[in-house]
User: Which sequence fits this backbone?
């Protein structure tokens, strides 16, 4: 990887109304000359922000290819306002759609990481429902974690965690990526159930490329294989990385991500 490019200026939009209004931070980079290519939109993971390695590398690649790029932080993340503990899939989905509508009104390639893949799939469902499904030119899903609350968290809750959810409305667990613990709220889990996508056929209407590490301790690669089963009508490619972890942020992983994005821009 090369030197980090000059940081794109942060702009803000307001999403929601009244007490639910929150200020969402985004970084939008346009090419020097319009190219007609889709805009690359980065959808980060749970507790991740738009300054992470993969997000910055997506913008760098957009610059190299002459495409526009949009990065942003969900509420409660990074430079955005709002409390993290108020976050739900529905709330972050609303913010994602607002950012896309404001900053990327044309065709887009959605690049999701972990929970961001779940958001990306829900974004497509919402766009298709309002007749805008053809705006999505492609999907790149990195360590996809759709339905992770119902599929990966709820079945493995301990009695102490269930008691904490009932009594306090949340539970905590140590994080491998931060000194601060992960917090999972009852609202997030309950809202996750109504946003499930692994319950029937998912139709994206665009090519899909999944990148999945086989040594991912957080989202087993069998979860990505299950996702493929729900995409029977799409052109889906999966790259299994034998020694890959959940982050997939090594130089060789970034190269695979860029290669996948490139096929969506060709």
Assistant:
């Amino acid at each position: 990887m090369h030197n980090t490019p000059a940081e794109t200026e942060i702009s803000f939009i307001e999403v929601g109304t009244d007490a639910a209004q929150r200020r969402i931070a985004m970084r939008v980079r346009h090419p020097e000359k319009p190219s007609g290519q889709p805009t690359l939109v980065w959808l980060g993971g749970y507790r991740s922000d738009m300054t992470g390695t993969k997000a910055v590398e997506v913008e760098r690649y957009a610059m190299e290819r002459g495409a526009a790029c949009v990065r942003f932080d969900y509420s409660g993340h990074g430079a955005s306002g709002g409390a993290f503990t108020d976050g739900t899939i529905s709330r972050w989905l609303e913010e994602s759609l607002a950012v896309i509508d404001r900053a990327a009104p044309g065709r887009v390639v959605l690049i999701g990481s972990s929970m961001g893949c779940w958001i990306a799939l829900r974004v497509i469902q919402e766009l298709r429902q309002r007749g805008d499904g053809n705006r999505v030119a492609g999907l790149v899903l990195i360590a996809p974690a759709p339905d992770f609350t119902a599929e990966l968290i709820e079945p493995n809750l301990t009695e102490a965690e269930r008691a904490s959810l009932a009594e306090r409305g949340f539970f905590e667990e140590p994080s491998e990526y931060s000194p601060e613990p992960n917090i999972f709220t009852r609202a997030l889990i309950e809202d996750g159930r109504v946003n499930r996508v692994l319950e029937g056929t998912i139709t994206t209407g665009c090519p899909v490329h999944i990148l999945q590490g086989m040594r991912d301790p957080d989202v087993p690669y069998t979860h990505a294989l299950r996702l493929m089963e729900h995409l029977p009508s799409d052109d889906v490619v999966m790259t299994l990385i034998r020694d890959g972890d959940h982050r997939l942020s090594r130089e060789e992983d970034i190269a695979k991500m860029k290669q996948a994005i490139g096929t969506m821009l060709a």
The chain has a mean pLDDT of 95.
